[in-house]
Amino acid sequence: MLRYLPAAGSLAVAALTTLLAILSGAGWWWAAVPFLALTALAAYDLVQTRHVVLRTYPIVGHGRWIAEALRPEIQQYFVESDTDGRPFDRDTRTIVYERAKGDEAESPFGTELDLDVVGREYLVHSMAPAPTPSADAPPPRVRIGGPDCAHPYEMALLNVSAMSFGALSRPAILALNQGAREGGFAHDTGEGGLSRYHLEPGGDLVWEIGTGYFGCRTKDGDFDPDRFAEQAAREQVRMVSLKVSQGAKPGIGGVLPGGKVTPEIAAAREVPQGRTVTSPPGHRVYSTPRELVAFLARMRELAGGKPVGFKLCVGSRVQFLAVCKAMVDTGITPDFIIVDGAEGGTGAAPLEFEDHVGLPLTEGLMFVADALVGCGLRDRIRIGASGKVATGADMVKRMIQGADFLNAARSMMFALGCIQAERCHLNTCPSGVATQDPKRFRSLVVADKAPRVTRYQQATVQSAQRLMAAMGVTDPADLRRSQLRRRISVESSQNLAELYAPLEDGALLRGAPGDWGRWWAAADPDVFDLDWTELRSAGGGSAV
Description:
By secondary structure, this protein is of the alpha/beta class. It folds into two domains: 2-80, no CATH class; 141-487, Aldolase class I (TIM Barrel), CATH 3.20.20.70. The protein is built from 22 helices and 15 strands. It has helices at 5-24, 29-47, 52-56, 63-70, 72-80, 90-101, 170-183, 196-199, 225-232, 263-269, 289-302, 317-330, 351-356, 361-374, 392-400, 410-416, 438-441, 446-470, 496-499, 507-510, 514-522, 532-537, and strands at 121-123, 141-144, 153-156, 158-160, 187-188, 205-209, 237-243, 255-256, 277-278, 308-312, 336-340, 382-386, 405-408, 484-487, 493-495. It has an eight-stranded parallel sheet.
Protein backbone atom coordinates (compact mmCIF):
# COMPACT_ATOMS: atom_id res chain seq x y z
CA MET A 1 0.00 0.00 0.00
CA LEU A 2 3.03 2.31 0.06
CA ARG A 3 2.27 3.23 -3.53
CA TYR A 4 -0.77 5.19 -2.30
CA LEU A 5 1.24 7.07 0.34
CA PRO A 6 1.93 10.17 -1.81
CA ALA A 7 -1.78 10.48 -2.58
CA ALA A 8 -2.75 9.98 1.06
CA GLY A 9 -0.09 12.44 2.22
CA SER A 10 -1.26 15.02 -0.30
CA LEU A 11 -4.83 14.64 0.91
CA ALA A 12 -3.81 15.03 4.54
CA VAL A 13 -1.69 18.12 3.91
CA ALA A 14 -4.40 19.62 1.66
CA ALA A 15 -7.00 19.14 4.39
CA LEU A 16 -4.75 20.64 7.09
CA THR A 17 -3.67 23.69 5.06
CA THR A 18 -7.23 24.31 3.86
CA LEU A 19 -8.44 24.27 7.45
CA LEU A 20 -5.66 26.67 8.48
CA ALA A 21 -6.51 28.94 5.54
CA ILE A 22 -10.15 29.05 6.64
CA LEU A 23 -9.31 29.65 10.31
CA SER A 24 -6.14 31.73 10.16
CA GLY A 25 -6.28 33.79 7.01
CA ALA A 26 -5.70 33.90 3.27
CA GLY A 27 -1.93 33.42 3.57
CA TRP A 28 -2.38 29.69 4.00
CA TRP A 29 -4.11 29.37 0.64
CA TRP A 30 -0.70 29.58 -1.06
CA ALA A 31 0.14 26.27 0.60
CA ALA A 32 -3.34 24.74 0.34
CA VAL A 33 -3.92 25.24 -3.39
CA PRO A 34 -0.94 23.16 -4.63
CA PHE A 35 -1.86 20.27 -2.35
CA LEU A 36 -5.51 20.50 -3.35
CA ALA A 37 -4.37 20.27 -6.96
CA LEU A 38 -2.21 17.23 -6.16
CA THR A 39 -5.17 15.60 -4.40
CA ALA A 40 -7.38 16.24 -7.42
CA LEU A 41 -4.66 14.77 -9.65
CA ALA A 42 -4.46 11.66 -7.45
CA ALA A 43 -8.23 11.23 -7.65
CA TYR A 44 -8.11 11.53 -11.43
CA ASP A 45 -5.27 8.99 -11.64
CA LEU A 46 -7.27 6.47 -9.64
CA VAL A 47 -10.44 6.72 -11.74
CA GLN A 48 -9.01 7.10 -15.27
CA THR A 49 -8.71 3.91 -17.32
CA ARG A 50 -6.10 4.66 -19.98
CA HIS A 51 -2.82 4.34 -18.06
CA VAL A 52 -2.29 1.36 -15.75
CA VAL A 53 0.83 2.85 -14.14
CA LEU A 54 -1.08 5.94 -13.00
CA ARG A 55 -3.92 3.84 -11.56
CA THR A 56 -1.41 1.76 -9.62
CA TYR A 57 0.95 4.63 -8.67
CA PRO A 58 -1.10 7.85 -8.44
CA ILE A 59 0.90 11.08 -8.64
CA VAL A 60 4.38 9.49 -8.74
CA GLY A 61 3.51 7.59 -11.91
CA HIS A 62 3.59 10.92 -13.76
CA GLY A 63 7.37 10.66 -13.59
CA ARG A 64 7.02 8.50 -16.69
CA TRP A 65 5.30 11.23 -18.68
CA ILE A 66 7.68 13.92 -17.43
CA ALA A 67 10.64 11.83 -18.58
CA GLU A 68 8.95 11.17 -21.92
CA ALA A 69 8.41 14.86 -22.47
CA LEU A 70 12.04 15.64 -21.65
CA ARG A 71 13.61 12.95 -23.80
CA PRO A 72 12.26 9.64 -25.17
CA GLU A 73 15.43 7.75 -24.31
CA ILE A 74 15.15 8.80 -20.66
CA GLN A 75 11.56 7.60 -20.56
CA GLN A 76 12.52 4.24 -21.97
CA TYR A 77 15.27 3.76 -19.39
CA PHE A 78 13.23 5.19 -16.51
CA VAL A 79 10.20 2.97 -17.03
CA GLU A 80 11.22 -0.10 -18.95
CA SER A 81 14.61 -1.01 -17.43
CA ASP A 82 16.72 -2.97 -19.91
CA THR A 83 18.42 -4.95 -17.07
CA ASP A 84 20.72 -7.66 -18.39
CA GLY A 85 19.88 -7.59 -22.08
CA ARG A 86 17.44 -10.53 -22.11
CA PRO A 87 14.28 -8.41 -22.49
CA PHE A 88 13.26 -6.81 -25.77
CA ASP A 89 15.37 -3.88 -26.92
CA ARG A 90 13.89 -0.45 -26.35
CA ASP A 91 13.26 0.31 -30.03
CA THR A 92 11.13 -2.83 -30.35
CA ARG A 93 9.11 -1.94 -27.27
CA THR A 94 8.55 1.56 -28.64
CA ILE A 95 7.17 0.11 -31.89
CA VAL A 96 4.74 -2.12 -29.97
CA TYR A 97 3.56 0.66 -27.64
CA GLU A 98 2.97 3.11 -30.47
CA ARG A 99 1.12 0.62 -32.65
CA ALA A 100 -1.06 -0.38 -29.71
CA LYS A 101 -1.98 3.28 -29.26
CA GLY A 102 -2.74 3.63 -32.95
CA ASP A 103 0.40 5.63 -33.80
CA GLU A 104 2.65 4.28 -36.53
CA ALA A 105 6.28 4.17 -35.43
CA GLU A 106 8.35 6.61 -37.49
CA SER A 107 11.91 7.81 -36.94
CA PRO A 108 13.88 10.81 -38.24
CA PHE A 109 17.44 10.83 -39.63
CA GLY A 110 17.68 7.10 -40.52
CA THR A 111 19.06 3.99 -38.89
CA GLU A 112 21.09 4.04 -35.69
CA LEU A 113 22.07 0.37 -36.03
CA ASP A 114 25.61 -0.73 -36.84
CA LEU A 115 24.94 -2.69 -40.02
CA ASP A 116 28.48 -4.10 -40.12
CA VAL A 117 28.05 -6.16 -36.94
CA VAL A 118 28.65 -9.86 -37.58
CA GLY A 119 25.38 -11.74 -37.26
CA ARG A 120 23.21 -8.80 -38.33
CA GLU A 121 20.42 -9.88 -40.68
CA TYR A 122 18.65 -7.82 -43.31
CA LEU A 123 15.88 -8.41 -45.82
CA VAL A 124 16.58 -8.23 -49.55
CA HIS A 125 14.33 -5.71 -51.27
CA SER A 126 13.39 -5.78 -54.96
CA MET A 127 14.04 -3.26 -57.70
CA ALA A 128 10.49 -4.08 -58.82
CA PRO A 129 8.45 -3.97 -55.60
CA ALA A 130 4.93 -5.34 -55.53
CA PRO A 131 1.95 -3.07 -54.87
CA THR A 132 1.39 -2.40 -51.18
CA PRO A 133 -1.87 -4.00 -50.06
CA SER A 134 -4.69 -1.60 -49.18
CA ALA A 135 -5.39 -1.14 -45.48
CA ASP A 136 -8.96 -2.26 -46.20
CA ALA A 137 -7.90 -5.51 -47.91
CA PRO A 138 -8.32 -8.66 -45.81
CA PRO A 139 -4.96 -9.87 -44.49
CA PRO A 140 -3.58 -13.25 -45.62
CA ARG A 141 -4.69 -16.32 -43.69
CA VAL A 142 -3.32 -19.83 -43.41
CA ARG A 143 -5.57 -22.88 -43.69
CA ILE A 144 -4.66 -25.42 -41.01
CA GLY A 145 -5.99 -28.93 -41.46
CA GLY A 146 -4.46 -32.00 -43.03
CA PRO A 147 -6.23 -34.84 -44.82
CA ASP A 148 -7.61 -36.28 -41.56
CA CYS A 149 -8.98 -32.95 -40.29
CA ALA A 150 -12.75 -32.46 -40.62
CA HIS A 151 -12.82 -28.81 -39.54
CA PRO A 152 -9.87 -26.81 -40.94
CA TYR A 153 -9.18 -23.42 -39.38
CA GLU A 154 -8.21 -20.23 -41.18
CA MET A 155 -5.34 -18.95 -39.02
CA ALA A 156 -4.17 -15.34 -38.94
CA LEU A 157 -0.50 -14.63 -39.65
CA LEU A 158 0.01 -13.26 -36.11
CA ASN A 159 -1.72 -14.60 -33.00
CA VAL A 160 -1.55 -14.51 -29.20
CA SER A 161 0.96 -17.04 -27.95
CA ALA A 162 0.49 -19.40 -25.01
CA MET A 163 -0.01 -17.58 -21.68
CA SER A 164 -2.03 -19.25 -18.93
CA PHE A 165 -4.59 -17.82 -16.56
CA GLY A 166 -2.54 -17.85 -13.40
CA ALA A 167 0.54 -16.51 -15.12
CA LEU A 168 -1.61 -13.62 -16.37
CA SER A 169 -4.36 -11.84 -14.49
CA ARG A 170 -8.10 -12.08 -15.05
CA PRO A 171 -8.41 -8.75 -16.93
CA ALA A 172 -5.30 -9.50 -19.00
CA ILE A 173 -6.84 -12.75 -20.30
CA LEU A 174 -10.16 -11.01 -20.96
CA ALA A 175 -8.47 -8.19 -22.87
CA LEU A 176 -6.34 -10.54 -24.98
CA ASN A 177 -9.31 -12.68 -25.96
CA GLN A 178 -11.56 -9.71 -26.67
CA GLY A 179 -8.80 -8.15 -28.75
CA ALA A 180 -8.40 -11.42 -30.67
CA ARG A 181 -12.14 -11.57 -31.31
CA GLU A 182 -12.28 -8.03 -32.64
CA GLY A 183 -9.17 -8.52 -34.76
CA GLY A 184 -10.02 -11.97 -36.11
CA PHE A 185 -6.95 -13.80 -34.80
CA ALA A 186 -6.42 -16.71 -32.40
CA HIS A 187 -5.59 -16.78 -28.69
CA ASP A 188 -3.54 -19.69 -27.29
CA THR A 189 -4.73 -20.53 -23.76
CA GLY A 190 -1.41 -21.74 -22.42
CA GLU A 191 -1.34 -25.00 -20.45
CA GLY A 192 -3.31 -23.65 -17.46
CA GLY A 193 -6.71 -24.82 -18.67
CA LEU A 194 -9.78 -23.26 -20.26
CA SER A 195 -10.85 -20.56 -17.83
CA ARG A 196 -14.11 -18.63 -17.98
CA TYR A 197 -12.04 -15.57 -18.92
CA HIS A 198 -10.76 -17.30 -22.06
CA LEU A 199 -14.31 -18.22 -23.02
CA GLU A 200 -16.48 -15.22 -22.10
CA PRO A 201 -15.33 -12.74 -24.80
CA GLY A 202 -15.86 -15.31 -27.58
CA GLY A 203 -12.50 -15.07 -29.34
CA ASP A 204 -11.03 -18.04 -31.21
CA LEU A 205 -8.94 -20.30 -28.97
CA VAL A 206 -6.06 -22.70 -29.43
CA TRP A 207 -6.43 -24.94 -26.38
CA GLU A 208 -3.01 -26.02 -25.15
CA ILE A 209 -2.66 -29.29 -23.23
CA GLY A 210 0.46 -29.62 -21.10
CA THR A 211 1.85 -32.43 -18.98
CA GLY A 212 -0.56 -31.56 -16.16
CA TYR A 213 -3.59 -32.06 -18.47
CA PHE A 214 -5.31 -29.08 -16.83
CA GLY A 215 -8.92 -28.88 -17.86
CA CYS A 216 -9.00 -32.53 -18.93
CA ARG A 217 -7.42 -34.44 -16.07
CA THR A 218 -8.47 -37.17 -13.69
CA LYS A 219 -8.10 -36.75 -9.94
CA ASP A 220 -4.78 -38.58 -10.19
CA GLY A 221 -3.48 -36.22 -12.88
CA ASP A 222 -3.94 -38.53 -15.87
CA PHE A 223 -5.54 -37.57 -19.18
CA ASP A 224 -9.34 -37.80 -19.07
CA PRO A 225 -10.68 -38.47 -22.61
CA ASP A 226 -14.30 -37.75 -21.73
CA ARG A 227 -13.49 -34.44 -20.11
CA PHE A 228 -11.21 -33.55 -23.04
CA ALA A 229 -13.95 -34.28 -25.58
CA GLU A 230 -16.41 -32.15 -23.59
CA GLN A 231 -14.06 -29.18 -23.48
CA ALA A 232 -12.81 -29.52 -27.06
CA ALA A 233 -16.41 -29.43 -28.32
CA ARG A 234 -16.75 -25.77 -27.26
CA GLU A 235 -17.34 -23.49 -30.22
CA GLN A 236 -14.50 -21.13 -29.27
CA VAL A 237 -11.94 -23.98 -29.32
CA ARG A 238 -10.71 -23.97 -32.91
CA MET A 239 -7.54 -26.04 -32.52
CA VAL A 240 -5.87 -28.19 -29.87
CA SER A 241 -2.11 -28.11 -29.18
CA LEU A 242 -0.18 -30.68 -27.16
CA LYS A 243 2.76 -29.00 -25.41
CA VAL A 244 5.78 -31.30 -25.58
CA SER A 245 8.19 -28.60 -24.42
CA GLN A 246 8.57 -24.82 -24.36
CA GLY A 247 11.48 -22.60 -25.23
CA ALA A 248 12.02 -20.86 -21.92
CA LYS A 249 12.27 -24.06 -19.87
CA PRO A 250 12.46 -27.14 -22.11
CA GLY A 251 12.55 -30.47 -20.33
CA ILE A 252 10.94 -29.43 -17.03
CA GLY A 253 7.42 -28.88 -15.79
CA GLY A 254 5.97 -25.87 -14.01
CA VAL A 255 5.18 -25.20 -10.37
CA LEU A 256 2.26 -23.05 -9.20
CA PRO A 257 2.62 -22.30 -5.47
CA GLY A 258 -0.44 -23.11 -3.35
CA GLY A 259 -0.83 -19.47 -2.34
CA LYS A 260 -1.57 -18.58 -5.96
CA VAL A 261 -4.11 -21.37 -6.50
CA THR A 262 -7.16 -19.19 -6.02
CA PRO A 263 -10.71 -20.61 -6.36
CA GLU A 264 -10.88 -19.40 -9.98
CA ILE A 265 -7.50 -20.87 -10.93
CA ALA A 266 -8.34 -24.12 -9.14
CA ALA A 267 -11.56 -24.34 -11.16
CA ALA A 268 -9.77 -23.71 -14.47
CA ARG A 269 -7.07 -26.29 -13.76
CA GLU A 270 -9.40 -28.72 -11.97
CA VAL A 271 -7.06 -29.00 -8.99
CA PRO A 272 -7.58 -28.48 -5.23
CA GLN A 273 -7.64 -24.86 -4.08
CA GLY A 274 -4.65 -23.65 -2.07
CA ARG A 275 -2.40 -26.61 -2.84
CA THR A 276 0.82 -26.37 -4.83
CA VAL A 277 0.43 -27.76 -8.34
CA THR A 278 3.42 -29.37 -10.07
CA SER A 279 3.42 -30.29 -13.75
CA PRO A 280 5.53 -33.37 -14.60
CA PRO A 281 8.49 -32.84 -16.94
CA GLY A 282 7.08 -35.32 -19.47
CA HIS A 283 3.79 -36.78 -20.69
CA ARG A 284 2.13 -39.93 -19.42
CA VAL A 285 0.11 -40.55 -22.57
CA TYR A 286 3.06 -41.62 -24.73
CA SER A 287 6.59 -42.95 -24.31
CA THR A 288 7.71 -43.44 -27.93
CA PRO A 289 7.48 -41.40 -31.15
CA ARG A 290 4.94 -43.85 -32.55
CA GLU A 291 2.79 -43.49 -29.42
CA LEU A 292 3.02 -39.68 -29.70
CA VAL A 293 1.58 -39.55 -33.22
CA ALA A 294 -1.06 -42.13 -32.27
CA PHE A 295 -2.12 -39.93 -29.34
CA LEU A 296 -2.38 -36.92 -31.65
CA ALA A 297 -4.74 -38.93 -33.85
CA ARG A 298 -6.77 -39.86 -30.79
CA MET A 299 -6.99 -36.21 -29.72
CA ARG A 300 -8.22 -35.23 -33.17
CA GLU A 301 -10.91 -37.90 -33.05
CA LEU A 302 -12.00 -36.85 -29.54
CA ALA A 303 -12.05 -33.21 -30.68
CA GLY A 304 -14.49 -34.00 -33.47
CA GLY A 305 -11.97 -33.56 -36.25
CA LYS A 306 -10.64 -30.14 -35.26
CA PRO A 307 -6.98 -29.40 -36.11
CA VAL A 308 -4.53 -30.97 -33.66
CA GLY A 309 -0.79 -30.40 -33.36
CA PHE A 310 2.06 -30.14 -30.92
CA LYS A 311 4.51 -27.51 -29.67
CA LEU A 312 8.17 -28.10 -28.90
CA CYS A 313 11.50 -26.44 -28.44
CA VAL A 314 13.88 -28.45 -30.62
CA GLY A 315 16.65 -30.26 -28.78
CA SER A 316 17.81 -33.51 -30.36
CA ARG A 317 17.51 -33.57 -34.13
CA VAL A 318 17.50 -37.37 -34.05
CA GLN A 319 14.53 -37.46 -31.69
CA PHE A 320 12.49 -35.13 -33.90
CA LEU A 321 13.37 -37.19 -36.96
CA ALA A 322 12.21 -40.26 -35.03
CA VAL A 323 8.80 -38.58 -34.77
CA CYS A 324 8.94 -37.87 -38.51
CA LYS A 325 9.73 -41.53 -39.15
CA ALA A 326 6.71 -42.50 -37.04
CA MET A 327 4.56 -40.18 -39.17
CA VAL A 328 5.86 -41.75 -42.38
CA ASP A 329 5.43 -45.31 -41.09
CA THR A 330 1.91 -44.84 -39.71
CA GLY A 331 0.55 -42.26 -42.13
CA ILE A 332 -0.58 -40.19 -39.11
CA THR A 333 0.39 -36.54 -39.20
CA PRO A 334 -0.49 -33.57 -37.00
CA ASP A 335 -2.19 -30.64 -38.65
CA PHE A 336 0.41 -28.22 -37.30
CA ILE A 337 3.66 -28.03 -35.34
CA ILE A 338 4.60 -24.95 -33.32
CA VAL A 339 8.34 -24.40 -32.93
CA ASP A 340 9.21 -22.48 -29.77
CA GLY A 341 12.65 -20.89 -29.70
CA ALA A 342 14.95 -21.13 -26.69
CA GLU A 343 14.70 -17.33 -26.48
CA GLY A 344 11.00 -17.61 -25.61
CA GLY A 345 9.81 -16.11 -22.33
CA THR A 346 8.01 -17.35 -19.25
CA GLY A 347 6.74 -16.03 -15.95
CA ALA A 348 9.32 -18.02 -14.01
CA ALA A 349 12.05 -20.51 -14.85
CA PRO A 350 15.54 -21.45 -13.63
CA LEU A 351 18.13 -19.19 -15.25
CA GLU A 352 20.18 -22.15 -16.45
CA PHE A 353 17.20 -23.44 -18.43
CA GLU A 354 16.39 -20.00 -19.83
CA ASP A 355 19.91 -19.41 -21.07
CA HIS A 356 21.48 -22.79 -21.77
CA VAL A 357 18.91 -25.36 -22.97
CA GLY A 358 17.26 -25.77 -26.38
CA LEU A 359 17.86 -24.51 -29.92
CA PRO A 360 17.28 -20.85 -30.81
CA LEU A 361 14.25 -20.25 -33.01
CA THR A 362 16.17 -19.67 -36.24
CA GLU A 363 17.99 -23.00 -36.07
CA GLY A 364 15.06 -25.00 -34.69
CA LEU A 365 12.55 -23.55 -37.14
CA MET A 366 14.60 -24.20 -40.26
CA PHE A 367 15.47 -27.71 -39.06
CA VAL A 368 11.79 -28.61 -38.57
CA ALA A 369 10.83 -27.12 -41.95
CA ASP A 370 13.62 -29.02 -43.71
CA ALA A 371 12.82 -32.27 -41.89
CA LEU A 372 9.19 -32.15 -43.01
CA VAL A 373 10.22 -31.34 -46.59
CA GLY A 374 12.77 -34.16 -46.52
CA CYS A 375 10.08 -36.60 -45.37
CA GLY A 376 7.61 -35.45 -48.01
CA LEU A 377 5.19 -34.21 -45.31
CA ARG A 378 5.47 -30.42 -45.58
CA ASP A 379 2.28 -29.99 -47.60
CA ARG A 380 0.24 -31.74 -44.88
CA ILE A 381 1.60 -29.88 -41.84
CA ARG A 382 1.58 -26.13 -41.13
CA ILE A 383 4.36 -24.66 -39.01
CA GLY A 384 3.93 -21.99 -36.34
CA ALA A 385 6.78 -20.14 -34.65
CA SER A 386 7.08 -18.33 -31.35
CA GLY A 387 9.95 -16.65 -29.55
CA LYS A 388 10.51 -12.87 -29.47
CA VAL A 389 8.21 -12.16 -32.41
CA ALA A 390 7.16 -8.52 -32.12
CA THR A 391 7.48 -6.59 -35.40
CA GLY A 392 6.63 -7.00 -39.05
CA ALA A 393 10.32 -7.61 -39.75
CA ASP A 394 10.32 -10.44 -37.21
CA MET A 395 7.33 -11.97 -38.96
CA VAL A 396 8.89 -11.83 -42.42
CA LYS A 397 12.18 -13.29 -41.21
CA ARG A 398 10.42 -16.21 -39.53
CA MET A 399 8.25 -16.88 -42.57
CA ILE A 400 11.39 -16.93 -44.70
CA GLN A 401 12.81 -19.50 -42.27
CA GLY A 402 9.80 -21.77 -42.66
CA ALA A 403 6.90 -20.53 -40.53
CA ASP A 404 3.37 -20.36 -41.90
CA PHE A 405 2.05 -18.37 -38.92
CA LEU A 406 3.48 -16.61 -35.88
CA ASN A 407 2.61 -16.40 -32.20
CA ALA A 408 3.57 -13.49 -29.96
CA ALA A 409 3.49 -13.33 -26.15
CA ARG A 410 5.61 -10.53 -24.70
CA SER A 411 4.65 -8.00 -27.35
CA MET A 412 0.96 -8.76 -26.69
CA MET A 413 1.68 -8.09 -23.01
CA PHE A 414 3.28 -4.77 -23.99
CA ALA A 415 0.10 -3.91 -25.89
CA LEU A 416 -1.77 -4.44 -22.61
CA GLY A 417 0.54 -2.00 -20.82
CA CYS A 418 3.30 -4.29 -19.51
CA ILE A 419 6.42 -2.23 -18.73
CA GLN A 420 8.69 -5.27 -18.38
CA ALA A 421 9.34 -4.73 -14.70
CA GLU A 422 10.19 -8.47 -14.42
CA ARG A 423 8.08 -9.02 -11.31
CA CYS A 424 5.87 -11.73 -12.87
CA HIS A 425 7.01 -14.41 -10.41
CA LEU A 426 6.56 -12.15 -7.37
CA ASN A 427 2.85 -11.34 -7.91
CA THR A 428 3.70 -7.63 -7.73
CA CYS A 429 3.37 -6.68 -11.41
CA PRO A 430 2.94 -2.86 -11.45
CA SER A 431 0.85 -2.88 -14.62
CA GLY A 432 -1.67 -5.52 -13.48
CA VAL A 433 -0.81 -7.90 -16.35
CA ALA A 434 0.97 -10.71 -14.50
CA THR A 435 -0.48 -10.65 -11.00
CA GLN A 436 -3.36 -12.23 -9.11
CA ASP A 437 -3.51 -9.32 -6.65
CA PRO A 438 -6.92 -7.62 -7.16
CA LYS A 439 -5.52 -4.33 -5.89
CA ARG A 440 -3.00 -4.38 -8.69
CA PHE A 441 -4.93 -5.86 -11.59
CA ARG A 442 -7.78 -3.37 -11.02
CA SER A 443 -5.53 -0.95 -12.91
CA LEU A 444 -5.94 -2.91 -16.14
CA VAL A 445 -9.25 -1.90 -17.73
CA VAL A 446 -10.38 -4.38 -20.37
CA ALA A 447 -12.42 -1.89 -22.40
CA ASP A 448 -9.30 0.24 -22.90
CA LYS A 449 -6.70 -2.50 -23.39
CA ALA A 450 -8.54 -4.92 -25.71
CA PRO A 451 -8.56 -2.41 -28.63
CA ARG A 452 -4.83 -1.89 -28.08
CA VAL A 453 -4.25 -5.61 -28.65
CA THR A 454 -6.30 -5.46 -31.86
CA ARG A 455 -4.53 -2.35 -33.14
CA TYR A 456 -1.08 -3.78 -32.43
CA GLN A 457 -1.80 -7.05 -34.24
CA GLN A 458 -3.35 -5.36 -37.27
CA ALA A 459 -0.59 -2.77 -37.61
CA THR A 460 2.13 -5.41 -37.31
CA VAL A 461 0.58 -7.66 -39.96
CA GLN A 462 0.25 -4.62 -42.24
CA SER A 463 3.90 -3.83 -41.61
CA ALA A 464 4.85 -7.38 -42.63
CA GLN A 465 2.80 -7.00 -45.81
CA ARG A 466 4.54 -3.69 -46.64
CA LEU A 467 7.94 -5.31 -46.14
CA MET A 468 7.01 -8.25 -48.35
CA ALA A 469 5.76 -5.86 -51.04
CA ALA A 470 9.12 -4.06 -50.93
CA MET A 471 10.70 -7.48 -51.53
CA GLY A 472 8.45 -8.06 -54.55
CA VAL A 473 6.24 -10.62 -52.78
CA THR A 474 2.50 -10.57 -52.07
CA ASP A 475 1.97 -14.15 -50.84
CA PRO A 476 4.01 -15.30 -47.79
CA ALA A 477 4.31 -18.73 -49.44
CA ASP A 478 6.53 -17.11 -52.10
CA LEU A 479 9.20 -16.01 -49.60
CA ARG A 480 12.56 -17.75 -50.02
CA ARG A 481 15.67 -18.11 -47.85
CA SER A 482 17.71 -16.17 -50.38
CA GLN A 483 15.71 -13.06 -49.41
CA LEU A 484 17.29 -12.90 -45.95
CA ARG A 485 21.01 -12.18 -45.66
CA ARG A 486 23.28 -12.43 -42.62
CA ARG A 487 26.60 -10.67 -42.18
CA ILE A 488 29.25 -13.34 -41.58
CA SER A 489 32.21 -10.94 -41.41
CA VAL A 490 32.85 -7.23 -41.63
CA GLU A 491 33.53 -7.63 -45.35
CA SER A 492 30.81 -10.03 -46.49
CA SER A 493 27.36 -11.52 -46.02
CA GLN A 494 25.51 -14.59 -47.23
CA ASN A 495 21.86 -15.41 -47.69
CA LEU A 496 20.23 -18.15 -45.63
CA ALA A 497 19.98 -20.50 -48.61
CA GLU A 498 23.77 -20.42 -48.77
CA LEU A 499 24.19 -20.83 -45.03
CA TYR A 500 21.46 -23.46 -44.59
CA ALA A 501 20.99 -25.38 -47.82
CA PRO A 502 17.35 -26.56 -47.91
CA LEU A 503 16.52 -30.23 -48.46
CA GLU A 504 14.69 -31.36 -51.57
CA ASP A 505 11.22 -32.82 -51.21
CA GLY A 506 11.47 -36.45 -50.05
CA ALA A 507 15.27 -36.35 -49.82
CA LEU A 508 15.38 -38.23 -46.50
CA LEU A 509 13.32 -41.06 -47.92
CA ARG A 510 15.78 -41.44 -50.81
CA GLY A 511 18.88 -41.39 -48.61
CA ALA A 512 20.19 -37.92 -47.81
CA PRO A 513 23.96 -37.45 -47.55
CA GLY A 514 26.03 -36.01 -44.71
CA ASP A 515 24.66 -35.17 -41.29
CA TRP A 516 21.04 -35.53 -42.39
CA GLY A 517 21.70 -39.09 -43.49
CA ARG A 518 23.39 -39.97 -40.19
CA TRP A 519 20.60 -38.41 -38.13
CA TRP A 520 17.93 -40.17 -40.18
CA ALA A 521 19.70 -43.51 -39.85
CA ALA A 522 19.93 -43.11 -36.06
CA ALA A 523 16.26 -42.13 -35.65
CA ASP A 524 14.04 -44.91 -34.30
CA PRO A 525 10.23 -44.43 -34.32
CA ASP A 526 9.90 -46.87 -31.42
CA VAL A 527 12.23 -45.18 -28.89
CA PHE A 528 13.13 -41.66 -27.81
CA ASP A 529 16.41 -42.79 -26.22
CA LEU A 530 19.42 -41.86 -28.32
CA ASP A 531 21.65 -44.68 -29.48
CA TRP A 532 24.97 -42.97 -28.81
CA THR A 533 26.96 -46.04 -29.94
CA GLU A 534 25.31 -45.99 -33.34
CA LEU A 535 25.74 -42.23 -33.64
CA ARG A 536 29.45 -42.41 -32.84
CA SER A 537 30.02 -45.24 -35.28
CA ALA A 538 28.24 -43.20 -37.95
CA GLY A 539 30.35 -40.15 -37.17
CA GLY A 540 27.41 -38.10 -35.91
CA GLY A 541 27.83 -38.27 -32.14
CA SER A 542 28.72 -34.61 -31.87
CA ALA A 543 25.62 -33.36 -33.70
CA VAL A 544 22.33 -34.85 -32.52
